[in-house]
Amino acid sequence: MSHNYFKTYPSKEGFFNEYGGAFIPPVLESEMKKITDAYFTISKSHDFINELRSIRKHYQGRPTPVYYCNRLSQKYGGRIYLKREDLNHTGAHKLNHCMGEALLAKYLGKKKLIAETGAGQHGVALATAAAYFGLECEIHMGEVDISKEHPNVVRMKILGATVVPVTHGLKTLKEAVDSAFEAYLKDPINSIYCIGSVVGPHPFPMMVRDFQRVVGIEAREQYLEMTGELPDSVVACVGGGSNAMGLFSAFLDDEEVSIYGVEPGGRSMNLGDHAATMTFGTPGIIHGFKCYTLQDEKGEPSPVYSVASGLDYPGVGPEHSMLKDIKRVTYDVINDKECIEAFYELSRLEGIIPALESSHAVAYALKLAQQYPQSSILVNLSGRGDKDIDFVVDTFGLPK
Asked: Quick check: 201 and 288 in contact, CB under 8 A?
């Protein structure tokens, strides 16, 4: 990898090699240019950087720690470490970019934040940011996910956000993105679409990655301080891929570190039973950008499924698509059964209840630990599992 990686990618037009870009209606082109110009202006501003650092330290509770899983490592082998993004305010990594996006919206004079959410963590984080800055907030969420993630729906409403149920299609994350984008198109002057991952038209994949880089920067420094060396492997779950890009970004130049992105294998490898975009997808355009996508025979985004609402998306970040092609990151799958087993293993061996999204990464780390018992593995524990406990117990029951 080039040491000028972050100056090289994306290109001025928002491409990571062939992926990314901005395939958007003409009505949005001037607004996207304003957002891009504003981001480049304020992201270099001393005042913006200072305010964001202050928010992270005094409001979000950063830096989050890196934790060594002693009992998990004893049982499975290896040396398993967690970057504890579950301890970030609101319970996941999402607030890292939401506070940045809201600060940008304030600079642009926007009055309203609009977004989609799957697991509800992005929705809660954006509602939190809106409350902090005194902005309106509208969150679009599929009816299926509203039912699965009820605690997060309540949190969004308590924080003052309007939750818009999405009732068409599969009623999950892809449809929520469609709905939120349509709402943004109605008033792009007074509102801003704060996308929830490293996806969407340029400049959002770049902006969200840059705001999430704090995860990797902290984790790399903390791991070196704890052990005196770098981990053999870093692991994160990938839906759209924001938590993964946050962690991976700090290790791209470290050729001795293997990087693994973990996708949801769901119930089976049949189309519609998983959301393993990198494993089974092909390049296509979705939601205004080019990436690997899961497509049906007509070339339309196919139905997807995951036990983790935050991962059931038929596309993926364009930067991830590039990293797959250049073989810097290995993308693999974990199925529902393995995810649930890891959910309970981490809970009962370490006293940490993980989000179902993060449980995919934990499950993969357990496989790596058994395969390479002398290796060290750093996992991004991207969120906590409070939102999932009722669904998991009602659906899968407690282990005996």
From this structure: yes
Catalytic residue among 58, 93, 202, 320: 93
**Does residue 237 carry a catalytic annotation?**
no
The CA–CA distances, whole Å, from 11 to 17, 117, 236, 322 equal: 8, 28, 25, 13
Biggest distance spanned by C-alpha atoms of the chain: 58
Catalytic residue (one of 3, 46, 58, 69): 69
Give the integer Cα–Cα distance in Å for 138 and 161. Answer: 6
58 is catalytic: no
| CATH code given to domain 63-92+213-396 | 3.40.50.1100
Report residues of the chain scoring pLDDT below 70. 1-3
Q: What is the pTM of this model?
A: 0.96
CATH 3.40.50.1100 fits 16-57+94-205, yes or no: yes
Instruction: Judge contact between 82 and 376, C-beta under 8 A.
Output: no
Token pair 């080039």: residue? 2
Backbone Cα Rg of the chain: 19
Question: Where do the CATH 3.40.50.1100 domains begin and end in the chain?
Answer: 16-57+94-205, 63-92+213-396
